[in-house]
Amino acid sequence: MKMDFPFEEASQVDLLAETEELYREVAGELALARRKLGEGDLGEVGNAVKAVKDLRAALQMVMDERTRVEKLRKQVGGIVGGGALDLGAARDEIGRRLARLRDAGAG
């Protein structure tokens, strides 16, 4: 199944995938630095600090891109500015209006 996205959304999805890959790479670097620190290799402190900063930046990029992609998907799907209809509330309102019409009678 192939989904066709508008160009802008497709580029956002690609950027999201790249950002998630960056996040995984940096997380791996941080894990390696942590292991080396645990073994007493203090030369990895600088690398660990850099990896934490990179990880934080990558996480922020992932969150920003996910937000953008979700916004685009809602726009494409026609769910802008709120979400789904509350059918229960609509049914209740129709019932109230019909009851008022019945109460008013034929007059």
Please identify the structural class as seen in this structure.
mainly alpha
Shape: rod-shaped
Uncertain segments: 1-7
Summarize the main sheet: none
- Average the pLDDT over all residues and give the rounded result: 76
Strand content: under 5%
Helix content: over 70%
Structure keywords:
107 residues, mainly alpha, 78% helix, 3 helices
What is the topology?
Elements: H1 7-38, H2 45-77, H3 87-104
Helix pairs in contact: 1-2
Task: Please provide a written account of the structure.
The structure is a single chain. With 107 residues, the chain is an all-alpha fold. The chain has a domain at 7-80. The chain contains 3 helices and no strands. The radius of gyration is 26 Å and the shape is rod-shaped. Mean pLDDT is 76; it is low at 1-7.
Short description:
It contains 3 helices and no strands.
